Amino acid sequence: MISTLILGIALLIIGFYAMLTRKNLIKIVIGFSIADTGTHIIIVSLGYLRGKTAPIIDGAVSMVNAVSEVVDPVPSALVLTAIVIGLAVTAVMLSFIVEMYKKNKSLSIDDYQELKW
Amino acid sequence: MIKNVAVILSVIGLVVIFLPVISGFQEREDLNELGADYVQGSINELETPNVVTSVIVTYRGLDTLGEVTVLFLATVGVGLLLKGNKEDMIKISSLELLETTSSVLVALIMILGIYIFTHGHLSPGGGFQGGVIVASGFLLLMLSNVNARISQSIMHFVESFSGVAYVAVGVAGLVLTVGFLNPGVLPFGKFGDLFSSGAIPVIYSLIGLKVGSELTSILVTMRGE
After folding, report:
1. Where are the domains positioned within chain A?
2. A2-111: which CATH architecture?
3. Structural domain containing residue B197
4. Cα(A5)–Cα(A54) distance, integer angstroms
5. Could you say which of B7, B50, B85 has the minimum Cβ distance to residue A21?
6. ipTM
7. Contact across the interface for A49 and B10, Cβ inside 8 Å
8. What is the pLDDT along chain B (225 residues), one digit of tens a residue?
């Protein structure tokens, strides 16, 4: 669907904008999560086929004509993987932030100059 | 000032990159060859109603093994970074409302999670979703009762047991049938039954246990134990 594709791209750009402009480390992680969700919506909307239903064979889908009645199962499987990886990355980022806060007592990115050039 | 210009330029660059994706987008009418093959194979070969499950557990089983490994690495990373936070632990007693409802709800949430990962081959859901629900039950337990102790060693045991059993089922597929993680090691049974689809429900239940115990141990670490 074109509308969900536009929504996904908008979320991706909003997330990148948040990551580039916010100073608070937690807000940068929130921006990452928004961009992550945007990519998931983009992938799922690329796998959508007009007027078709979820790829689960039950009452709504006949076994004989299943191929012509369901959407693409591959993007759904890829997004399931991507969600889990996103969760793992977010957990590790947040624990890095906890450690950084314990060391410098600050959540502002301006107080971490070590990698600045 | 220069930084703001750079930010605006990179956002505009992103928009320019994605404009052709939107303008050249055409909704597809039919499945491509790969998707059609997976749907046919799921019905005829694997006897699995949920096609997404058969893609994740069988056709892309190696990817899922890698995904579970990434989740394990994240657990180890969080445990390593947040080790020894004991003195920071804040104990706030919870509200009576939360305590009373959680004594009813925790067991129901766990049962829902177990139902979802054992029925992953029949209905929407599966190991990852069911595991997350089980972990959310443990989170409710931790929120409602500050003194609730969740044993890390039991969580680690469940996690390593299910990880080893997952690989063992995969190797059994390699020895007894045609390839690694082939679900044909168990009989395929009747389409739509709980005990059908070969080893797919076994593998997905093991994934559910692994994900649930891993996320619970992340939560216990973040709580500061």
Report:
1. 2-111
2. Orthogonal Bundle (1.10)
3. 2-223
4. 18
5. B7
6. 0.83
7. no
8. 788 898 899 999 999 998 888 888 887 777 888 888 888 888 888 888 888 888 888 888 888 999 999 999 999 999 888 876 666 666 777 788 888 888 899 999 999 999 998 988 888 888 899 999 999 999 999 888 877 788 888 988 999 999 999 999 989 888 888 888 888 888 888 887 788 778 888 999 999 999 999 999 988 888 876
